[in-house]
Design brief:
Mean pLDDT: 84
Strand content: 5-15%
Shape: globular
Distance between the termini: 56 Å
Order of helices and strands: EHEHEHEHHHEEH
Number of strands: 6
């Protein structure tokens, strides 16, 4: 397929592995970000991102050029759902075992095609929505009616103190880093300082 990284139009291109679909791999979010930026800078055809980790795929999609392609393994046997992967930014879902081991491969392929077609009609989910879901799941972000110290009523309450372990600190740091990159602020910022104002 012709794409940003395939100027010759000969149907060939280079894909960079940015993240894996298997558990316990060495591709953390920071590494995936660096690899996605490398793929963009080099003008590669696209990248490989997991079809079973929608947040990772959405984060990688945000960093690529629009014409770059994401191919995603991890659909089916590894727990990924093709429609959710497409909503997160996947262009091509790699499906193997679900079709090979299906009793009726034609029926399975038809159902898969229907899910993908439906997802293509919807709006893609940005990495921000996955980050907000994470904050809610950790209890750091709550929605409702909250009376603040100022007396004002707020529709949400954010308690960053809950985000105090290594995993949550890394998630927040990577979210800041991605936003800084996407807003093209990386050459304007020398340091990020978070004062412990509650101290």
């Amino acid at each position: 397929a012709k794409s940003a990284g395939n100027k010759s139009g000969n149907g060939k291109g280079i894909f960079l592995l940015c993240s894996m679909s298997s558990e316990g791999n060495l591709f953390n979010e920071a590494a995936s970000t660096r690899l996605a930026l490398m793929a963009k800078k080099l003008g590669l055809t696209g990248v490989v991102a997991p079809g079973n980790n929608y947040e990772a795929t959405a984060g990688i999609r945000a960093l690529l050029d629009e014409k770059q392609i994401i191919i995603s393994p991890g659909i089916g046997a590894q727990g990924g759902e093709a429609d959710k992967a497409v909503m997160a930014g996947t262009d091509f879902a790699i499906v193997g075992r679900n079709l090979i081991e299906a009793k009726d491969a034609k029926k399975e392929a038809g159902e898969l095609n229907g899910k993908i077609s439906g997802a293509l009609k919807g709006k893609r989910l940005g990495w921000e929505s996955f980050f907000v879901d994470y904050l809610v799941s950790r209890g750091a972000l709550k929605f409702g009616e909250f009376k603040l110290k100022s007396g004002r009523i707020a529709p949400y309450y954010f308690n960053s103190g809950i985000l105090s372990d290594g995993e949550s600190a890394a998630r927040v740091a990577n979210a800041f880093a991605r936003k800084i990159i996407l807003e093209k602020l990386d050459e304007k910022i020398d340091v990020v300082f978070g004062p412990a104002y509650k101290g």
